[in-house]
Structures are given as structure tokens and as C-alpha cells.
Amino acid sequence: MSRFVLKRLLLSVPVLLGVSVVVFALVHLAPGGPVRVMLGPLSNEELVRQIRLEMGLNRPLYVQYGMWVFDALQGDFGVSWTVQQGTPVTDIIVERIPLTLELSILSMITAVVIAIPAGIISAVRKDKPADHAARIAALSGISIPDFWLGIILIMIFAVQFSFPWATGGWTPPWVDPVANLQQLFLPVITLGTAYSALIARMMRSEMLDTLSQDYVKTARAMGISAREIVLKDASKNALIPVVTVIGVGLGQLMNGAILTETVFNLPGIGKLLILAIDRRDYRIIQALILFIASVFVFANLAVDVLYAYLDPRIRHDGN
């Protein structure tokens, strides 16, 4: 198992290096360079030259990239120029990670709690009213855009019913757990709905495939109750492929938080990225894109390890 994990870790290194090259190049190869992008159309040549000299942008690109990677490995992405002028980028990001992480985890828990039972019931009750209802709900959840659902929920709970906790903002759970859960209720529903639909469809498909296996037919012939077959045997085997979707989904939920945090005015990673783009703070943009890419890479790594643990054939094939 350790050899399998080490191999996956080594395969993650070139992926992150590739992402760092792309992130660095997108900003530095933009028309006019990062300084003109940051200053906008009102920049003058003297100011551009001065800032380029201060930031070391007059050096060759490969030297700048090497210095940037070296600093990034130490958690140093420089200071913000426009979002929070003079504040270290790392401090700005670390301050906002707890909200996005909590939102993603709660959304995933909500999605799993809804989707797994729905997928099992839909498969067991195939082509019956419960199955049709679950499939319609899943299709609706996938089709409805997150931002649209968020706006509708705000109109209902904040405008129509005037609930104060539905108007946005975030209270850390260690300050007031009740206010924290109230403020995240609508964002969690918004973000978790679409992903619960995807997991439910996947679970239904895997359950239908598992229930058609010979060992399930044998168990039925032996007189084992349908409830025991579904809950103890079929559902466990069907969950193995679904684990992949759930694990990768945590990274995707952090990506989906960009729009959700903007709609609900939550000061997380997603809203910070939108703000940095709007104010042309390229240092924050670089750091956030690298951070989000790292989350995806390590989420995939965790899924590979968990999948190999659940199904030993995977790690033997991987070795």
C-alpha cells in the first residue's frame, strides 16, 4: 500500500508543476505584462518601469518563475497590491479558507445524506413511482444552475419571510455555532443540491448493476431477506465506485463555491478570487488558482488511496 501511495504522490508532482507553469505564464504573457494588467489603462511608462523594477519583473522569465516557485514552496506569494494593499497574500487566503472548507464539507455531507438513500430506493423500486420521483428530482438538481437556485432561495427566505440569517455574512463556528449554521443553511442547500443529484444517479446505476449479479440471486435463493441483501451486501459493493465521485466532488464543490459565495456575500476563497480578478491583483489570482488546483490533485490522490483500500485489486494493478 505504501508503494502505491508513493507512486501516486510522485505522479502528482508533474501535474502541480504544469499548473504552476500555466498560472505563471497566463499572467506574465498577458498583453503589456502583469504591471499593465494590474494598473489598467491609466498606467504611464514611468510608473510601469518603477513597479517592474521593484517587483523584479525586469529579469528573464525563467529566473522570475524559479524565484516564484521557490517562494511558493515556502508559502510566500508576496503581498497584495489592490485587494488588501501591503498584506501578505498567504495571510489573506488563510483567513478565508475556513469558510470555504466548512461550506464544502457541509455541502458534501448534505449531498451524501440525500443521495445515497435516494439512489438505493430508486434502484430497489425501479420503474415505480418512487424511482420516477427520484429520477425527476435528480435531473432537476443537475439542470438548475447554482446561482439561480441561490437567488430564488434568497428571494423566498430573505425577501418574502424576512429571516435575518438569510441575508448573507458568516459567523465562525467557534464564535457562535448556531448563527454559523443558520447563515450557511441556504448556501449549503444551494451547493449540495446539484451534487446530490449526481451522486444519486451514480448510486442508482451501481445498485442496479450490483442487484443483477449472480451472488445476489444466490442470496435470494437461499432465503436471505431483501432488506439484508440490499443493506449489507449490495449497497456496500455499489458504494465503491461512488466513493470516487464523492472524493473528487469535494474539490469540485470548492470550485462551485465561487458563485455561491458571491451570491450569498460570504467572505470565502471564491469571493476573494472574484474580487482579485476585478481589482487585477495578479498575485492573489496566481496563489488561488494554484491552491484550487492543489485541492483537486490531493482530492484525487485521496480517492485513489481510498479506492485501493476498498478494492485491493486496484493497488495490485497499480503496482
TrEMBL record:
Q: Where is the ABC transmembrane type-1 domain?
A: 97-307
Does the UniProt entry include the keyword DNA damage? no
Q: Which GO terms describe its cellular component?
A: plasma membrane
Cross-referenced Pfam families: BPD_transp_1, BPD_transp_1_N
Q: Which residues cross the membrane?
A: 105-124, 136-161, 181-200, 287-310
Gene3D superfamilies attached to this UniProt entry: MetI-like
Alphabetized UniProt keyword annotations: Cell membrane, Membrane, Transmembrane, Transmembrane helix, Transport
Q: Which CDD domains match?
A: TM_PBP2
Name the major location: membrane
What domain of life? Archaea
Q: Where in the cell is it found?
A: Cell membrane
Q: How does it sit in the membrane?
A: Multi-pass membrane protein
Q: Which family does it belong to?
A: Belongs to the binding-protein-dependent transport system permease family.
Q: What is this protein called?
A: ABC transporter permease
